[in-house]
Automatic annotation (TrEMBL), chains A, B, C, D, E, F:
<feature type="binding site">
    <location>
        <position position="35"/>
    </location>
    <ligand>
        <name>Mn(2+) 1</name>
    </ligand>
</feature>
<dbReference type="InterPro" id="IPR009078">
    <property type="entry name" value="Ferritin-like_SF"/>
</dbReference>
<dbReference type="InterPro" id="IPR039377">
    <property type="entry name" value="Mn_catalase_dom"/>
</dbReference>
<dbReference type="InterPro" id="IPR012347">
    <property type="entry name" value="Ferritin-like"/>
</dbReference>
<dbReference type="Pfam" id="PF05067">
    <property type="entry name" value="Mn_catalase"/>
</dbReference>
<feature type="binding site">
    <location>
        <position position="150"/>
    </location>
    <ligand>
        <name>Mn(2+) 1</name>
    </ligand>
</feature>
<feature type="binding site">
    <location>
        <position position="183"/>
    </location>
    <ligand>
        <name>Mn(2+) 1</name>
    </ligand>
</feature>
<dbReference type="GO" id="GO:0046872">
    <property type="term" value="F:metal ion binding"/>
</dbReference>
<feature type="binding site">
    <location>
        <position position="66"/>
    </location>
    <ligand>
        <name>Mn(2+) 2</name>
    </ligand>
</feature>
<feature type="binding site">
    <location>
        <position position="69"/>
    </location>
    <ligand>
        <name>Mn(2+) 1</name>
    </ligand>
</feature>
<dbReference type="InterPro" id="IPR007760">
    <property type="entry name" value="Mn_catalase"/>
</dbReference>
<feature type="region of interest" description="Disordered">
    <location>
        <begin position="256"/>
        <end position="282"/>
    </location>
</feature>
<keyword id="KW-0464">Manganese</keyword>
<keyword id="KW-0479">Metal-binding</keyword>
<comment type="similarity">
    <text>Belongs to the manganese catalase family.</text>
</comment>
<protein>
    <submittedName>
        <fullName>Catalase</fullName>
    </submittedName>
</protein>
Amino acid sequence: MFYYDNKLQYTVRVDTPDPRFARLLQQAIGGVEGEMRVCLQYLFQAFGARGPAKYRNMLMSTGTEEIGHIEMLATAVALNLEGAPSRLKDQMAADNPVVEALMGGMDPRQYLSAGMAALASDANGVPFNGSHVYASGNLAADMYANVTAEATGRALACRLFEATDDPGMKDMLRFLIARDTMHQQQWLAVIEELGGHKGTLPIPNSFPVEEELRKVSYDYFFTGVDGVDLPTGRWTQGESLDGLGEFRLNAVQPMGEEPKLAPPMPQAYAEKQQMEGAADHK
Amino acid sequence: MFYYDNKLQYTVRVDTPDPRFARLLQQAIGGVEGEMRVCLQYLFQAFGARGPAKYRNMLMSTGTEEIGHIEMLATAVALNLEGAPSRLKDQMAADNPVVEALMGGMDPRQYLSAGMAALASDANGVPFNGSHVYASGNLAADMYANVTAEATGRALACRLFEATDDPGMKDMLRFLIARDTMHQQQWLAVIEELGGHKGTLPIPNSFPVEEELRKVSYDYFFTGVDGVDLPTGRWTQGESLDGLGEFRLNAVQPMGEEPKLAPPMPQAYAEKQQMEGAADHK
Amino acid sequence: MFYYDNKLQYTVRVDTPDPRFARLLQQAIGGVEGEMRVCLQYLFQAFGARGPAKYRNMLMSTGTEEIGHIEMLATAVALNLEGAPSRLKDQMAADNPVVEALMGGMDPRQYLSAGMAALASDANGVPFNGSHVYASGNLAADMYANVTAEATGRALACRLFEATDDPGMKDMLRFLIARDTMHQQQWLAVIEELGGHKGTLPIPNSFPVEEELRKVSYDYFFTGVDGVDLPTGRWTQGESLDGLGEFRLNAVQPMGEEPKLAPPMPQAYAEKQQMEGAADHK
Amino acid sequence: MFYYDNKLQYTVRVDTPDPRFARLLQQAIGGVEGEMRVCLQYLFQAFGARGPAKYRNMLMSTGTEEIGHIEMLATAVALNLEGAPSRLKDQMAADNPVVEALMGGMDPRQYLSAGMAALASDANGVPFNGSHVYASGNLAADMYANVTAEATGRALACRLFEATDDPGMKDMLRFLIARDTMHQQQWLAVIEELGGHKGTLPIPNSFPVEEELRKVSYDYFFTGVDGVDLPTGRWTQGESLDGLGEFRLNAVQPMGEEPKLAPPMPQAYAEKQQMEGAADHK
Amino acid sequence: MFYYDNKLQYTVRVDTPDPRFARLLQQAIGGVEGEMRVCLQYLFQAFGARGPAKYRNMLMSTGTEEIGHIEMLATAVALNLEGAPSRLKDQMAADNPVVEALMGGMDPRQYLSAGMAALASDANGVPFNGSHVYASGNLAADMYANVTAEATGRALACRLFEATDDPGMKDMLRFLIARDTMHQQQWLAVIEELGGHKGTLPIPNSFPVEEELRKVSYDYFFTGVDGVDLPTGRWTQGESLDGLGEFRLNAVQPMGEEPKLAPPMPQAYAEKQQMEGAADHK
Amino acid sequence: MFYYDNKLQYTVRVDTPDPRFARLLQQAIGGVEGEMRVCLQYLFQAFGARGPAKYRNMLMSTGTEEIGHIEMLATAVALNLEGAPSRLKDQMAADNPVVEALMGGMDPRQYLSAGMAALASDANGVPFNGSHVYASGNLAADMYANVTAEATGRALACRLFEATDDPGMKDMLRFLIARDTMHQQQWLAVIEELGGHKGTLPIPNSFPVEEELRKVSYDYFFTGVDGVDLPTGRWTQGESLDGLGEFRLNAVQPMGEEPKLAPPMPQAYAEKQQMEGAADHK
């Protein structure tokens, strides 16, 4: 279960409120690279964790930290919306400052739906979608999902850093960027602890590899037509990363036949011509 | 641009049609771990690729291969739906075999909406959602997104393998599992080519690390209350994976203050008591 | 504005309640082929209609009829859910008839969320999505959208007819299928009134065709590789349907060059190797 | 910011795992009446709270409690999925117990996507959608949103109670139902504290009522045609609840005119007949 | 069933078209606080109404009125889009007035997808989502859902009133705000008719309260850590609103144990280390 | 299976990058009228095609062409985003050009999430949704769905043509508009090949028309109240388009009764008053 503190994990200060930046911050709250996603992803991975208890515990700890990041960003949104109409009025010689603020790049729903506060949505107002909460039941797959979340999350935070000149906002982002630096490596450290590539690949490593069609397990199939350069690299030669094979480069060839489906069954109510014509036409 | 062949990349054969398995296969078509996602993800990464041309080319080649995997799975769905009513009729002593088939675990929309064919949806009928197409503009972040897709994809394929006894379906899955083995390692090979952890971390590596708040960049913050075990591991000690710091374990402490928002502005139409009471109440 | 009657447009009778059929009926309520979609589509087309007033009026009339079809189907769902537990209990020798009913193919949310009534969702429980409300501002495009809705809607109703043996339900579906017969032809009658193919094509017919690249306006581009049959038909020869050209068959050829994107701009925070390597690598 | 404990808020025990009940529990996790929604709704209301600080604090406290309810339910799902194949095997004389379990009413994605654990989705597998997180900036509106969430939430929990015979699950639900009893009344107590109906209505009470069209502010407009009973009740007579008017019953009459839109502008690319015909046709 | 009139329920007049206001109006059409939602919510509650017939009738009447509100708002959108390019051209010294209009804050899809008319979406272009149609089968829960819809709806309308200076639009909003005043109180009047708090709480009142864990039914659990103020108020003392208990304030304590999940079953394809390590690691 | 070429199907050139136009182009990529939809729609129709093989082949060919249209548009987006900050800086005398570009009408996620590249979303950032992939199993229904897609798609392309002055972009759009001209007629040519209206209507033509309620199959039901003009036209008189009846105009009349639902069953947990009052109240 959970507890809260009335203080923020790190200072959130806005020197010059900017309702337009409040819109951009939404991406870090409810976007696919945002804090709602990482928070829920780590917590759901923890709640369903099977195997060594320490990984559940580690996931709980970081998932709990991330709730506080949502809080920080929602606070930052609310502060950026304060004084919105008046500031934008100056810039735009507007008749109606509320209209102008709304139209000058802010998310209209931060006003219309939330009365000047944050939403559970991304920078385009698209609501947070729970399908991004990856918790596969496979620890290595989940760790890579987490690295991805923190890598795209840090790229997002760096871009937000670029998109503001406000010293308070930059200070908050320096903290969040640093936490993403840590969290990327935290998940990769688990991979290292599990034995690195040879200890984890192919994921899941509990499926017996002899069951798969081994003759295509290390082939880079090239699907380009004549005239396209061959994309060679580490993936076309040398030992495979799982240590169980050798990478190769092969032009793709159909190994299957032309698909043949049965005529429509009567209950499917295709057009009559589809049923009659199945034999005659070609 | 693109071309097609009238043959499948690998044989798709169904020995005993099973409309219930047709539902499960939908997860590998339109699910978050499915082929529509990887196909579109690699193609969008290719279409927006900036930097060394060979990575664009490699992504195009594999993205194009994946279109053919959607084709294979959609064919497998259609074949599993053939003979659906009659087979299930036998098992269930049903009055109305269509009803029984529909109710016996198949996706009703494969009949109602598609006339016994595949949908662009997952195993619960949730439509494919384009927000899962990750193409961040950062090559390392994208490679980890791709590893994640192939790791969860291979776990899915292994679970589907478990969920069928049909020799034809098992044969098709052996092929797809093997391709996922290759593709996981293909994306990790790019990370290796870029210099591994020290060459790529923290992602993005083009943001100057001195801009981030370095004092929290390698701290594992523990958010558990008294009585919870400390989750120690590789992530709490030793050199950080980027080679730029040292992991540490610290109990989390608030570094910020209690957030203070301004009273509601009049245009936000809060309740009067919120505006009046801002000063008096506590 | 609108008025209601306390009677249904057509009798809704359920002789033997079947909670499983209640699930299938959801597709005709909130599915992409369902009545919520056609109702809202016709009303939004009416609300935004510009041009001859009679089409607005016609759309209002049929859109209003369709609200009553949602009412009929929602009533049918509620009636099919009556007596659900007891009936299924008999069939299944169940310990807990509610559980068994829920698990025996019904939509669990019809019980859990609605207390035995209809939802604004499809047969898989996916909520109705307003993006299916097509109202393009172009009358011909909208008429074809409406034909599509009624064609897929009638296919759905026929399949539902197949999926029930209940005389009351079959009677209701006979009515709905007949209305779809009418509505398909109603929209096509507008196309006829506008002059048929030559009066409406290409849609929109108000864009000057000389602005388009006429040399590819009637070419069927074949994208198959060697060995694939040429798909010939009415679309590869004869006068085009708009009367302005001649259909032709051509193998596709790239008319463009290889795309070349600029290197990443610094603010995009790609990996350093993408920026450095843009020149050297290939 | 937030902290966690390694213990659950209340005991979660499953005596006889039932993968089908695991599906139903998903509604209480990721459904519109579920714990993810209330948790995030209360926290977002707290994060954006303006006005008396005690309401922010109260919302933080209850929002934090709700995270623990997600944890309890996710744990309950995981436990219900243990032993799934073997138990269902017995019941069904199945060839392949995994297939049978998957088909026997469980959510296939709990296996395929999560390896036998909970998802951030509802009982039909529809992902949690952030648009249900209501935080309007108006305290009274939010309190009613919260009452709604707890009223539908308690109805859901009561229905789940009905749908299981497992003593452990019933025990957990007794706890959750009791908490919903408290939370419903907690939000209504705020309304009482704000002065009840006269203190809060109409919501928002900060908009000057003289600005609205007072002559229709207390009219129940009846839209039924001849022959429909008049729906009389407290809402058609007596003092209005805000104490500012008197309820009345009136048959609806159009107070507006027929809408007249301008012809399509050329850039909208309607059909030519829409532009030409705007004058002539009727 | 339903009928229509060619007149609007109330006058819709736009004195100075403003394509940017047309975007904001979308929130009142397809947003979560909008008219599509209330219209469909009341109609679905009516269609599934069980119990006293007069409530069904009342819901039908108001649901039908709301269809006309969608019509009014869609008309307002269409009128605000007339003359869009030319007006904005003046303001912006633009090269291409269509581009400028599109970029100056309007919803681009009102032009691109609808040819200058309304969409079934919110102010950010997010499509209407049927999951917001609450019809729980419990009359009291539904009434509170309806109060919520009208409270957030009136807050939205007041904010829109603030966001326009157009006399015609203000006149229309005065009407809609007044109707929301009525509808809020209409639903609360039903609660009064059912006996108020003591007659309806806890919702559902048909579940025997002795089945719930009474010892936590009136406890306000405080989850704050040391140093956080206690949030006291009406909800921490005095008789509970249902008249069946007494509110209390208690610091939360775990009443449960640490959750223990079984190791992964083999068919779940976790990593091998999760299966092996379950015993050894901690 | 599929192959790719490193060249585009047609030249994509941007003379003056415009990040705002990059946003509009998204509608043609991931919007409901866009290329992802047509591409996947034709491919899914092909993958599930039953009946004459030539239609499968034709669909494969055109579906494959459309992948290349996504590629062209994604390339156009990437090129329009190049130089974004600097160009907009000039126009706006901005302090921070990145902020200004982001706020000046571009899609912020093209920067924040994609690092200046295309997304799988529409012009409002709403992700592509697979439910728009229509593949009904009925050839005629599918052809009309395809005509609709190409008609709304061509309207979109014409509107985009209006929204840019860039010669390169206009050139690309001339090509795409011409291809839509072809594809509209290609699908209608199939209808002609199947025998036109009399050969295909009512769709599906395999359902025996005598099963439907023939007495309402050709009635235009007028739902207007007194005072509304009758909407007469081709659909109210003359032979029906299927050649099997005669159109008629009739004022709608209820043919059904008032719906009567049973009282709530106890397990549905309605309010007690709903259960008790079912008899007494009216």
